[in-house]
Design brief:
Length: 430
């Protein structure tokens, strides 16, 4: 149910006590489970919203992953901005202290989200003194205070001196934080090993990322029965690459990449889809890039086929809230224009299912590429048949947002593509 990336934290021994923090050595990291709890079940999927569900539902749907994380030695748990049945999680003593620390025996430390205690009140920060009191007494051990740290220190000190917050609560928080630091060996080796810096971006890591890309892509459409478009031939007279996301590393990486909301353009070292196409095709093949070409250009270009890469702009948190889940212009029109004039494969870059039914018929092939990150060659590995498509949908793909929420087993379950769907192709590498 819960996977901690092998090698980062280290694997816990067989006799490990659930709830204790575990870090295998100096070159490992302390893992964090978040966002506790119910963050994935908010009303309408809106960020920081209210999760409306009874206790049985909370425990059976949202809680098991945390229990599993504790069994695997997670060191910290971050509290969610969201609420459970109207109670802000950052102020929920019953779930943080009584359940997580008490019943589940979690011995690491809990941490707030960014300005999380501020948002206990509405509007945020309306009564900061109360927010500090409520958050600490709920059981949060470390507070993420990006700006008003002087006010936080002053208010917290005042609450302790006046007895509003007992010293035992402070002792508990400090004990938990020190326990994790001792587990990590920070007092013996407080600084990271600078010689490891040259490991960042090494070929071995990029090859692994590239493999992850090609295995995660989901082929949603591939021509007509008996006449598939993919894999594409590497040798062709001239091919067109189009779309806002064809030559944009920032769009491939999405949010939380270098900047909070991500960015656009060549934000880091990597390979765009256009770069990858040029590297994959035969040297005799001419590759033409036009981000949003008009119909005459496509019709008169003499193209053997086209690859169109479009999708969402980067986002995180509230900026990603959407009630329509459409891809921004000119994405849809680029698909209609290009695919209406030449055989084409559309590569959809998005962090989630989006509305695609209106242009599904226009494109010959459609690939859900999610957010492939810096290794665009993982996309072309399967487009051109070096490897086959094997990915399956991790969630249901809707026809329209009016169907949402929609899950397997619902009476109104009538998806565009069902959970687990994914066409396959054979690859030359196999």
């Amino acid at each position: 149910m819960t996977e901690l990336i092998p090698g980062l934290q280290g694997d816990v021994p067989q006799n490990f006590t659930s709830g204790m923090p575990y870090v295998a050595g100096q070159n490992k990291v302390a893992a964090c489970a978040k966002h506790f709890v119910g963050d994935g079940g908010t009303h309408d999927g809106i960020n920081e919203n209210n999760t409306i569900i009874d206790k049985q539902g909370l425990m059976s749907i949202h809680m098991p992953a945390y229990l599993d994380s504790l069994r695997k030695g997670v060191s910290t748990v971050m509290i969610s901005y969201s609420s459970w049945n109207g109670i802000k999680m950052h102020a929920n003593h019953n779930l943080i202290t009584n359940f997580l620390k008490g019943r589940l025996n979690f011995k690491g430390f809990t941490i707030s989200d960014w300005e999380g205690i501020d948002r206990i009140t509405s509007p945020a920060g309306a009564n900061y003194s109360y927010s500090v009191q409520a958050g600490i007494l709920a059981g949060i051990d470390m507070i993420m205070v990006p700006n008003n740290y002087q006010s936080f220190i002053s208010i917290l000190t005042g609450h302790v001196n006046s007895g509003v917050i007992p010293m035992s609560r402070i002792d508990d928080a400090v004990t938990r934080i020190l326990r994790v630091k001792f587990t990590m060996g920070l007092f013996e080796n407080p600084m990271p090993d600078a010689t490891l810096a040259d490991q960042l971006g090494k070929k071995e890591h990029r090859d692994l990322a590239r493999e992850a890309v090609r295995k995660s892509l989901v082929l949603l459409k591939n021509g007509k029965p008996g006449a598939p478009l993919l894999p594409l031939p590497k040798k062709a007279a001239k091919i067109l690459v189009a779309g806002t996301h064809a030559d944009n590393l920032g769009y491939q990486c999405g949010g939380w990449t270098i900047e909070w909301q991500g960015d656009t353009g060549r934000i880091t070292v990597g390979t765009t889809i256009l770069d990858a196409v040029k590297a994959a095709v035969d040297p005799s093949t001419t590759v033409v890039f036009a981000e949003n070409p008009d119909a005459d250009f496509v019709r008169n270009g003499g193209f053997s086929y086209a690859i169109v890469a479009v999708g969402e702009h980067p986002y995180t948190e509230t900026q990603g809230d959407s009630m329509n889940l459409t891809i921004p212009d000119p994405g849809p029109s680029t698909i209609q224009t290009v695919c209406g004039a030449v055989r084409c494969a559309t590569v959809l870059i998005s962090g989630r299912p989006v509305v695609i039914q209106p242009f599904l018929a226009a494109t010959d092939a459609l690939v859900a590429a999610w957010l492939p990150g810096t290794e665009g060659q993982g996309v072309t590995d399967v487009l051109f048949g070096d490897y086959g498509f094997t990915g399956k949908l991790p969630r249901t793909w809707f026809k329209s947002v009016d169907q949402l929420p929609m899950n397997v087993g619902d009476a109104h379950y009538d998806p565009l593509f069902p959970f687990g769907f994914g066409l396959t192709t054979k690859g030359n590498a196999y």
